[in-house]
Amino acid sequence: MSAADLPVIPGVLTRGDIARTAESIAAAQEPDGAIPWFAGGHIDPWDHVESAMALTVAGRWDVARDAYIWSAKNQRDDGSWPMQFRQGVIENHDADTNFCAYLATGILHFLSITGDSEFTAELWPAVRAGIDFVLTLQLGDHGEIHWSADDSGSSGEALLTGCSSIFHSLGCAITLAERLGDPRPEWRRARRRLGHALRDHPGAFLDKSRYSMDWYYPILGGAVRGTAARARIDRYWDQFVVPDLGIRCVSDAPWVTGAETCELVLALDAIGDTSTATTLFTDIQHLREPDGSYWTGLVFTDGKRWPEERTTWTAGAVILAADALTRTSKGNGIFRDVRRD
How is the chain split into domains, by residue range? Predict the structure, then answer.
């Protein structure tokens, strides 16, 4: 993949800018393929995949492969991953269902861009086992999926953001199953139930409405689209959006964050509002450093970066948003072109 194939947003980011952002992610990757939040930081299986997806967009296919191989090698026998690692050591043994489903999104994205069906087949057992594990936690009355599991089994309740992401990952997993000739009709049934819960039973989920992710993730994950999605965006816009700066992570805190803003960019793009999405994408560039890395967020009441971390997954969200806005890679529609069945 050449520099000419990288996303460019005139007046905002050049191809060289995108390449530097990808390099800031690759520079943090550990020898075993793990991508921590920042050099020396911890690794979680979801943000690790998000970073690998960004590297794929940027043409860094070899390092993305290394990241996905790390995922397969660190999967447990039950199909789950520990919630947190640091330099090869497990720091949290619990399993987050959203984390465990997300490999399906990453591998479909990798296949869409690279066309590497051989590598996809190699990673398919890990994707399949992860999805099967997640669906053992579909314990709710309406199809919701509990957010985590510990040594005793199910732990906690269902989370709207996590289940919205799982809904998307299930769609990716079903597509992979079809392409690999290993259809999984039980996954389709589980996804329909989950979509029903997300659209029609908001009371099935813990109330996290102060978090912006609960606002836009049902749209980003594809469970809510059309007029319902537009109404949802409009209803909470003023609660979360800070003009010229991005969006709040939490409605009652003066803190805008890059990754959440870029995810909202992806959600807006998915419903056809590319103009507003581009404005938000432009607004968040105040978090960028000259080396292409991005600060996690800004406390806008005092102008301080917080936390004092430049995170790989924030940089990853920027690249994925730029790709979606510019329709550059063959994976640019991974969040826009969500299957409806």
Answer: 3-326
Sequential DSSP letters for 277-297: HHHHHHHGGGGB-TTS-BBSE
Render pLDDT for 52-73 as a digit per residue (tens, 0 to 9): 999 999 999 999 999 999 999 9
The torsion angles phi and psi of 146, rounded to 5 degrees, stand at: -60, 150
- Side-chain-side CA neighbours of residue 175 (13 Å): 21
The pTM for the full model equals 0.97
112's enclosing H/E stretch is helix 103-114
**Confidence at residue 149, expressed as pLDDT on a 0 to 100 scale:** 83
How far apart (Å, rounded) are the C-alpha atoms in residues 25 and 175?
Answer: 28
**What fold does the segment set 3-326 form as a domain?**
Glycosyltransferase (1.50.10)
Query: Amino acid letter at 190?
Result: A
Q: What is the pLDDT of residues 124-159, one digit of tens each?
A: 999 999 999 999 999 878 999 999 987 656 566 899
Structure tokens at 310: 């430049």
Give the chain's end-to-end CA distance (angstroms, integer): 33
Residues in the chain: 341
